[in-house]
Write the structure tokens for this entry.
Amino acid sequence: MTETKLAPGDAAPEFTLPTADGSTVSLESYRGKRVILYFYPAAMTPGCTKQACDFRDNLSQLTAEGFVVLGVSKDKPAKLAKFVEHDALTFPLLSDPELGVHKAYGAYGTKKSYGKEIVGVIRSTFVIDADGKIEQSLYNVRATGHVASLKKKLGLA
């Protein structure tokens, strides 16, 4: 299985995906803004909840700095809606059950889990510039402390 890995300067793959509330979001509609697009394995799991709440808790600063935050998982919109409600998440969560967008960004493929190689969602974060180019591509990020580390990389810490 050859896996795509995006690098700074690459064009960010375009997408249109359904959100937790049933509307759709397209990357193209954020042209002119910087987007933090993060992929996580599953809504309502401990690590993913910690990461989502971390983005929620830092959202006002990220927004003030001109960023839009979007989370993507393979969960269906109904499960995302529960996640949003349960954890008072204040940014769009996008549903990609067919994994097409995950694969386009290299956020699905072979990874190590507890020493074994498995195929699954690779926790990844991308910073996309105002022109739709990859500014940063971070693969295999840790859920805990990720937003603080991302803010440092963006010069916001």
The longest strand covers residues 67-73. The chain has a mean pLDDT of 95.
